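Hello,

Our lab assistant flagged a job as stuck in the queue for most of the afternoon. It eventually completed. Since we weren't sure the result was trustworthy after the delay, we are filing this so someone can double-check. Below is the sequence as submitted and the structure that was eventually returned. Let us know if re-running is recommended.
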Amino acid sequence: MPRKKRCDRNHVIYMLTAPDGDRYVGITYVRGRAYQRSAKIRFEAHVRNALDYMRTNLLSRSIREHGPAAFKREVLEIVRGKQNAHDRE
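-- returned structure --
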């Protein structure tokens, strides 16, 4: 019998703030117990999408305009369960 897929893992709600004050709030799942590292890995994916894949969404445009180092990253909350995280976001 296959294992049941977990639906209760922890998620990080994080905020990225650009130098011009624009903010982006997102969620990502927690890898182990490394909350800050999980948010950092997700930010690096945003940067890859902006610089390597030339995505055209607002966050990618802002990353290209200001540069990745200009963004302030912060973890807002740790939430248990995917649906709860999306509700809080």
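-- support follow-up --
The delay was a queue issue, not a problem with the job. The result is valid. The CA atoms of residues 30 and 75 lie 11 Å apart. The mean pLDDT is 92.
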